Recover the amino acids of this structure.
C-alpha cells in the first residue's frame, strides 16, 4: 500500500513501511513514558512532568530557574507549567520567588523537601530507563540512536554527545 | 560524570552519555510532535490527537470503533478520549452510536464531514513527517530505527515491518 501525497506542486509517495516506522516511534515514546510514569506514581506519588521539573531545578544554580526558562526545559506550555508549579508548591516541593532586580522575573525554586523527594524518586526513574531503554539496546545501537537523534534535532549547547 | 543507581540489592551506573541519549529521545519526540501539531492547527484547525482519532476511525470497518478500543489505539486515557470525542462531536466530525447487540458498547463513528476534514489534513500531516523525520534519515538509518523500535516495543499484530 502506498499513500500518495499532493503538497503544492510536488507529489511524493510515503510507503507503508515508512509510515509504520513513524507510528512505531510514536507508540514507543508513549509506552515508555507511561511505564516510567506508572512506576514514579506508584512508588513516589510523582507524575513524570513533576519529576522533570524537580530535576531541572536541582541541576540549576541555586536550585532555581525563571518560569519561562523552566517551561522551555521541561517542554511544557507556560500555562501548563503554571498549573504544575501550583501543585508542586501546595505539596511543598517547589516555591515561587520574585526576582529583586527584575520586576518581570518570577522564579521557581526547589525546596529542601523537593530535593529529598527527587533523591528518593531518582533510583526508580533510572531503573526504568535502564530496564526499558538502555538495557534493550546494545552499545552499537545506542550510538546509532544518538547519531540519528543528532541529525533529527541537534542537541542544545552543552548537551552534545562526544563523537 | 556518572550517576550511580541503587536499586534493591543491585547497583548499576548510568553514564552521562546514556542519560543524554535518553533525554535527546524525549526532546526529539516532543519537538516533532509540536511541529506536526502546529501545521495541523494552522492549516486545518485540528489538534494532533484529533487527527489520530479521525485516522483510526477511517481505517476501521464501517468507520467505527468502540470507545475503549479507540482509546487504546490513540494512546489516550478513557477520560481524555471522552473529552476529545465530545469536541469532535460538537464539530460534526464524529458521532457516538450505541451498539444494539451490546448494552456496554458505545461506538465512535467517523461522519462524512470528518472523512472530508481528514482527507484535507492528511497531505499536511504526511508532508510534516517527510520533512522532519523521513527525509532527514537515509534508508539505512530508517531500517536501523525500525529494528531498534521493534526491540524496544514489538509492533502489534498486523503492523510488523517486513524483515
Amino acid at each position: 500500500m502506498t499513500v500518495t501525497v499532493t503538497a503544492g506542486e510536488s507529489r511524493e509517495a510515503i510507503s507503508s513501511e515508512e509510515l509504520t516506522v513513524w507510528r512505531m516511534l510514536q507508540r514507543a515514546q508513549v509506552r515508555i513514558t507511561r511505564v516510567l510514569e506508572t512506576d514514579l506514581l506508584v512508588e513516589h506519588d510523582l507524575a513524570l512532568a513533576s519529576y522533570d521539573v524537580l530535576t531541572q531545578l536541582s541541576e540549576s544554580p541555586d536550585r532555581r530557574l525563571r518560569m519561562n526558562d523552566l517551561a522551555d526545559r521541561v517542554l511544557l506550555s507556560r500555562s501548563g507549567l503554571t498549573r504544575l508549579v501550583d501543585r508542586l508548591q501546595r505539596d511543598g516541593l517547589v516555591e515561587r520567588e520574585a526576582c529583586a532586580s527584575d520586576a518581570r522575573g518570577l522564579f521557581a525554586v526547589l525546596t529542601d523537601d523537593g530535593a529529598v523527594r527527587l533523591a528518593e524518586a531518582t533510583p526508580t526513574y533510572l531503573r526504568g530507563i535502564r530496564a526499558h531503554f538502555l538495557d534493550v539496546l546494545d552499545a552499537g545501537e545506542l550510538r546509532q540512536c544518538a547519531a540519528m537523534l543528532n541529525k533529527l534535532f541537534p542537541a542544545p549547547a552543552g548537551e552534545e554527545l562526544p563523537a
Q: What stands out?
A: The mean pLDDT of chain A is 85. Chain A touches chain B through 50 residues (CB under 8 Å). Residues 2-129 of chain A form a domain with the Arc Repressor Mutant, subunit A fold (CATH 1.10.10.10). The CA atoms of residues 81 and 106 of chain A lie 13 Å apart.
